[in-house]
């Protein structure tokens, strides 16, 4: 089932949410009780209980491909869907009463890859202040091409981006210039990201009908370490993912290397 159709709010809403906009990211509860997060996200609870755990979601489209190929650009690099097999979400604020608990630093960002999210047509990039710690919260998931985890990746995206992070934790708002969620290739260079993984069971009844049951757990390690353990991913794949999730205390060096690649060096 198309993820966009499953949510039922239209492809434009879902695309804008995944880019960091819409009422889900922007509205905060007022003193009068308007924009209550629990009420605003009621559809997420409904979808989670009715289909997210037992119906396989396909690439979000909502009928857009007939007029706007790859409308959900967050999940494409060229003609492939997230070829490195990593989807990541990064947050900078919280709608809940609990302040955002950061787990990473922003290092740098080449905004060109996310042009259909940030709407900047020219080549552009950002060098972040790498000194303050815990500026944001990043999390994601990884999979091998053709694996069961690949098949259910949009169920995992729904669980991660909408159920766990928005509905349960109130996490909102993207890093400026980057999507809220997308292929790791489009996301900023960051220090760290948490990791979730799906558990997928298939059962067949006496009539031969197959059902799927999906649940999710922490990977038990960070996102890059989990990716490093995927036997089906090449050393080149792992090199590129490491260049995007650089590890603790490596942000300043990674940002300087990024700027050097842009032929820019600090002024003495």
Task: Detail the topology: elements first, then pairings.
Layout: H1 3-7, H2 11-19, H3 22-26, H4 37-40, H5 42-52, E1 86-91, E2 93-94, E3 106-110, H6 115-118, E4 125-127, E5 137-142, H7 148-151, H8 153-168, E6 171-172, E7 181-183, E8 189-190, E9 194-204, E10 210-218, H9 223-228, H10 235-244, H11 251-261
Parallel strand pairs: 5-9
Antiparallel strand pairs: 1-5, 1-7, 2-6, 3-4, 3-8, 9-10
Helix pairs in contact: 5-8
Using only CA atoms, what is the Rg? Answer: 19 Å
* Intertermini distance: 56 Å
How many beta-strand elements?
A: 10
The poorly predicted ranges are: none
N-to-C order of helices and strands: HHHHHEEEHEEHHEEEEEHHH
Which shape, going by the Cα principal axes?
globular
Mean pLDDT reading: 93
Strand order of the largest sheet: 7-1-5-9-10
Structural class: alpha+beta
Annotation field: number of helices:
11
Q: Strand fraction band?
A: 15-25%
Residue share in helices? 25-40%
Biggest pleated sheet = 5 strands, mixed
């Amino acid at each position: 089932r198309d993820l966009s159709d499953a949510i039922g709010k239209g492809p434009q809403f879902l695309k804008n949410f995944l880019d960091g906009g819409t009422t889900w990211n922007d509205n905060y509860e007022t003193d009068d009780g308007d924009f209550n997060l629990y009420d605003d996200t009621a559809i997420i609870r409904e979808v989670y209980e009715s289909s997210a755990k037992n119906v396989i979601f396909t690439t979000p489209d909502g009928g857009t491909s007939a007029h706007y190929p790859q409308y959900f650009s967050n999940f494409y690099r060229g003609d492939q869907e997230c070829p490195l097999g990593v989807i990541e979400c990064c947050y900078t604020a919280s709608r809940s009463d609990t302040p955002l608990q950061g787990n990473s630093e922003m290092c740098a960002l080449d905004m060109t890859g996310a042009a259909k999210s940030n709407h900047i047509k020219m080549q552009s990039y950002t060098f972040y202040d790498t000194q303050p710690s815990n500026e944001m919260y990043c999390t994601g998931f990884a999979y091998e091409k053709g694996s069961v985890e690949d098949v259910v990746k949009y169920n995992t995206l729904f669980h991660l981006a909408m159920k766990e992070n928005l509905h349960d934790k109130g996490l909102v708002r993207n890093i400026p210039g980057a999507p809220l969620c997308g292929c790791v290739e489009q996301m900023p260079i960051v220090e760290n990201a948490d990791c979730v993984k799906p558990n997928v069971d298939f059962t067949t009844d006496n009539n031969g009908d197959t059902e799927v049951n999906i649940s999710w757990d922490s990977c038990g390690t960070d996102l890059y370490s989990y990716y490093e353990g995927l036997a089906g991913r090449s050393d080149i794949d792992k090199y590129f993912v490491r260049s995007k999730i650089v590890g603790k205390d490596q942000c300043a060096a990674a940002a300087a290397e990024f700027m050097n690649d842009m032929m820019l060096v600090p002024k003495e």
